[in-house]
Design a protein that fits this description.
By secondary structure, the protein is an alpha+beta fold. Helices cover 30% and strands 14% of the residues.
Length: 732
């Protein structure tokens, strides 16, 4: 046992530590982080700890311990110097270097008002204050004390004003740029070419690269309708321009850009325009435009973001940019671009004897050249299938068909005696399916009569019709007897049992083996060059999703009951951040969909190549593998649940499963014991792969809808959320 002297020494050390590293109150810690536009993930990364730990420090639940305490104190001290606590208007110091900046949000009368506390987001809501000449930094910023630095990820001085700006024209006809974090810059540019020059030379907009060999994100300018009018652009596109996706080449603004030696990409001057000059050395000269009134922000994913005031739109897009990446187009385009940004196709070689380097393949990437799919992976109309008869329909033995579930069945008599239908939905299901998945990186190799290898990605022609769901393995040496008539087959999207050989992705065949059945592939297209290409992509999107949900009050460590309560109405707590959540989820699905992008008009005919085929990221095999694994993950949980509880799903649509139950909550049928879920089954929570409550309707509603449309197998999962059925289910 320690003697008294040792105990007193330990206490003295604690006291000394407390004096040396004082910390502000928990609420102030959060205010300082948000004022700097930092996320909990960024702080956690700098301090080499978990995001949840930072959240606990800001909530006052726990305190950091040495050595992280000293680093955290240093961070907060530096932030306090830059972002002092709000005081009476006019008491913050200003400087006179750099472009003119104005604190947002300005009122119509531009009256002064006390600074408001920031809202819980990556970019806080700004306060209404008067226009004043100041340095290009956040409102109320003071010059940091010389010699003091922070432990946070340093702000790149090239991009000191954030990744993007919303360009607007105020009531005084002044053009201003609303940046993230509440900063507003005066914009002197009188034309689009001048605006591009100002952005690259003075605005300090952009975002550092996400990967070592990658490229910095180009600055993004979002043009409001008033800005479009100011710069000679239409506020809406004509029907012809909308269908073309761009302005005509003879438009005066395009001529202005040409005279100034600026170029447009092949997509032209459309809702997401890119204006650039050819690269000279390592310097890029490129600015991207986003034009909401031209439908750049799809309302299915961005809600009403396009109608937000400039400062609030900057907040929404800034939060997305800081957590995912600067938008490069639609959420689908951005999802695909994020893959490339995290795994650039090339890197600089080791220096040669003379010190020079060359560009070489970046290991773990898809490379810079496209590869052809296997014939079974090619969608209808692909050039590889040009020799097929014109009206030939490929069956399962010719075509890989890995899609999400769309399955339903009539309810049993026992289920009809229950009162409710309860839908549960898997969070970020396709992202979870991508996590840890081994996918092909290069071209496929054709193999005859191969031995199946569950670790080898590819497409396998194999007969799985012998797999009987009435008796399956649910553990290493544990078999379960099930009612196969109440389960969908795991091998087909419609849940039908296969009746012969068909093409499957590796996860599907591996699941047949897991269920306890032998497989004997007839042939396969496998990819020996492979890796976990999507891991970093998944982690980036997972962290973005969890951080934003935490800002909305839904944390990852909640009990099941608390989680359900936190999810109830979470979107109304901050509709703008709820929009960011929607965009993040759309980035997952859209990015995976882009891996097999189909022709988009342009006079395409079957058998001819289309534009997307020229991308190394056109990889239908990767999309198929992710969907296969996502569907299998869901089926595995359904089987575990059925084996343990005797309950079977009534309907499944993609990642939503509907069960009949006596209560209205998922807790009324999920087998939680002492707060712990069924191992391998469904678990409530916000993390990707866990489930949330999708909706509850009555059994009478379900039977009534099916009777109304004379459809005993109408997929009720499609309507379980709000109960509204507008037309008969056509599977679309």
């Amino acid at each position: 046992m320690s003697d008294e002297g040792e105990l007193f020494s330990a206490v003295d050390a604690l006291l000394e530590q407390a004096v040396r590293d004082p910390l502000p109150e928990p609420a102030e810690r959060k205010r300082l982080r948000e004022a700097a536009g930092l996320t909990q993930d960024q702080v956690a990364g700098a301090l080499q700890t978990r995001r949840e730990a930072v959240g606990n420090w800001e909530a006052g639940r726990t305190e950091p311990r040495p050595p992280k305490r000293a680093a955290y104190a240093r961070l907060l001290e530096g932030l306090a110097a830059r972002f002092p606590a709000p005081g009476p208007a006019g008491n913050t110091s200003t400087a006179s270097a750099g472009p003119t900046a104005t604190p947002a949000r300005e009122t119509a009368s531009r009256t002064s008002a006390p600074a408001a506390a920031p809202a819980p987001a990556a970019a806080p809501r700004p306060a209404a204050t008067s226009r004043q000449a100041s340095a290009s930094r956040r409102p109320g910023a003071k010059t940091a004390t010389p010699g003091k630095t922070t432990a946070a990820v340093a702000v790149d001085p090239r991009f000191a004003h954030g990744p993007l700006a919303v360009i607007d024209v105020g009531a005084d006809r002044k053009v201003v740029a609303y940046c993230t974090g509440g900063l507003v810059l005066d914009v002197p540019a009188k034309s689009i070419p001048a605006l591009v020059d100002w952005t690259l030379q003075e605005a300090k907009l952009g975002q550092p690269k996400l990967s070592g060999p990658g490229k910095d994100a180009d600055p993004l300018l979002v043009l409001t309708e008033s800005a479009l009018e100011r710069y000679g652009l239409p506020t809406t596109l004509t029907e012809e321009e909308r269908l073309a996706g761009r302005l005509p080449e003879g438009h005066k603004v395009i001529k202005q850009l040409a005279r100034a030696e600026w170029k447009l990409t092949k997509r032209g001057f459309g809702p997401w325009a890119r204006i650039y000059r050819p690269v000279k050395g390592s310097e890029r000269a490129c600015v991207q435009l986003c034009i909401p009134s031209w439908h750049a922000l799809d309302s299915r994913h961005w809600g009403t973001a396009a109608q937000l005031p400039p400062a609030e739109l900057a907040r929404v897009l800034g939060a997305y940019a800081s957590r995912v990446m600067t938008p490069r187009g639609s959420t689908a385009v951005t999802g695909l671009e994020l893959m490339t940004a995290l795994h650039p196709p090339t890197r600089a070689s080791a220096p040669h004897a003379d010190g020079t380097r060359h560009s070489e393949h970046n290991p773990g990437s898809l490379g810079k050249d496209p590869v052809d799919p296997a014939p079974c992976e090619a969608p209808d109309g692909h050039p590889l299938l040009a020799d097929l008869p014109r009206f030939h329909i490929r069956g399962p033995g010719e075509k890989l068909l890995e899609e999400a579930y769309d399955w339903a069945r009539p309810m049993t008599d026992a289920e009809c005696t229950l009162r409710h239908l309860v839908g549960i939905d898997v969070n970020m299901a396709f992202a979870a399916g991508a996590n840890g998945l081994i996918v092909g990186l290069g071209a496929p190799t054709h193999v005859k009569a191969p031995v199946f290898d569950p670790k080898l990605p590819g497409s396998w022609l194999v007969d799985l019709s012998h797999v009987d769901l009435s008796r399956v393995k649910v553990g290493k040496d544990t078999w379960a007897d099930l009612d196969a008539g109440l389960l969908p087959s795991p091998f087909t999207p419609k849940g039908e049992r296969p009746d012969g050989p068909a093409w499957y992705a590796t996860p599907t065949v591996a699941y047949a083996v897991e269920l306890g059945y032998d497989v004997a592939p007839i042939e396969a297209y496998v990819r020996y060059d492979n890796g976990r290409y999507l891991d970093a992509w998944y982690q980036r999107l997972r962290d973005a999703y969890l951080a934003t949900m935490a800002d909305l009050g839904v944390d990852a460590d909640l009990t099941p009951a608390d989680f359900l309560a936190a999810m109830d109405g979470y979107q109304e707590r901050d509709p703008q951040l709820a929009t960011v959540v929607s965009a993040i989820k759309a980035t997952v699905k859209g990015g995976l969909g882009k891996l097999r992008e189909r022709p988009r008009g342009e006079g395409w005919r079957p058998g001819e190549p289309w534009r997307a085929l020229a991308r190394p990221t056109w990889r239908p095999d990767i999309r198929a593998a992710v969907i296969s694994r996502t569907r299998i993950n869901l089926h595995r949980k359904i089987v575990k649940h059925a084996a343990f509880t005797g309950q079977y799903p009534v309907a499944i649509l993609s990642d939503c499963v509907v069960y009949a139950a006596n209560g209205e909550s998922p807790l009324d049928f999920l087998p939680y014991r002492d707060g712990k879920p069924l191992p391998g089954g469904f678990k409530l929570g916000v993390n990707p792969g866990l489930v949330k409550h999708e909706g509850t309707q009555t059994v009478l509603w379900g039977e009534g809808v099916r009777e109304q449309f004379n459809a005993p197998e109408l997929n009720l999962a499609r309507y379980i959320k709000d109960g509204t059925v507008t037309d008969a289910d056509n599977g679309e």
